[in-house]
Amino acid sequence: MLLAIEQGNTNTLFAIHDGNEWIAQWRAATDSRRTADEYAVWLLQLLEMRGLKLASLDGCIISSVVPQSLFNLRNLSRRYLHVEPLVIGENAELGVAVRIEKPSEAGADRLVNAIGAHVIYPGDLIVIDSGTATTFDIVAADGGFEGGVIAPGINLSMQALHDAAAKLPRIAIQRPERNRVVGTDTVTAMQSGVFWGYIALIEGLIARIKVERGTPLTVVATGGVVSLFEGATDSIDFFDPDLTIRGLLEIHRRNRHIAGQ
């Protein structure tokens, strides 16, 4: 079975694939100080709750945008799974063209998403990932990564608003009741500004990208926050929460010759 680890700046996803389907997924807060031993204890307990064993995991693939954590995630695989992990950006062959001025600057998460989208959706794509940052990436019909847009994530914007304005409270992000835009108090005004502001950001950037590209583009969205926007805009064609782990699975299949995985 394959252990796929997708680490963002905020959360880290651990997912298990049994060769046919994803059978378990867990999220933990990203903490670069967490050791391989701490990961192992946490993972062992979760596996046991699902009737699974650590010894059953015979493959591992890691995508991380937190370099300080890679040492411990790599040691988790080596020490407890007894396999050399595939690491995006290091020993994993992506099998996809990266058509930007500095290919080395393309984030691992963005490339994984591009592959995860390409294996399911035909044609040219815009892939939106809403996490710590909100990214809009262009994937060509042949799967090539052709750049994109990076904007602050919705949670980051909310945190900045609270930190910079002494009288503005820390609030939860949620869709305004009855889809109202104008708030009647501070909290509802903030919620409306963040929610509808991000809808406007998404719709505006999609429209501009489509004009600039001049070709039909299918829009696919993923990420922990993106489910909030489902039903609130017609600019997104598909909401796909499994985009990233699908990309990791495809990359693992393309690299089975490495380390005997």
UniProtKB/TrEMBL annotation:
Location of the protein in the cell: Cytoplasm
Entry annotation: catalytic residues: 109 (proton acceptor)
Binding site for substrate: 107-110, 186
Cofactor requirements of the protein: NH4(+); K(+)
Pfam family, one: Pan_kinase
EC number: 2.7.1.33
Positions that bind ATP: 6-13, 132
GO molecular function, one term: pantothenate kinase activity
Enzyme class: transferase
Gene3D superfamilies linked: 3.30.420.40
Source domain of life: Bacteria
Pathway participation: Cofactor biosynthesis; coenzyme A biosynthesis; CoA from (R)-pantothenate: step 1/5
Catalysed transformations (reactions): (R)-pantothenate + ATP = (R)-4'-phosphopantothenate + ADP + H(+)
Signal peptide (UniProt feature, chain positions): none
Cofactor note: A monovalent cation. Ammonium or potassium.
Keywords: ATP-binding, Coenzyme A biosynthesis, Cytoplasm, Kinase, Metal-binding, Nucleotide-binding, Potassium, Transferase
Function description: Catalyzes the phosphorylation of pantothenate (Pan), the first step in CoA biosynthesis.
Summary of subunit composition and partner proteins: Homodimer.
Family affiliation: Belongs to the type III pantothenate kinase family.
UniProt protein name: Type III pantothenate kinase
Designated gene of the protein: coaX
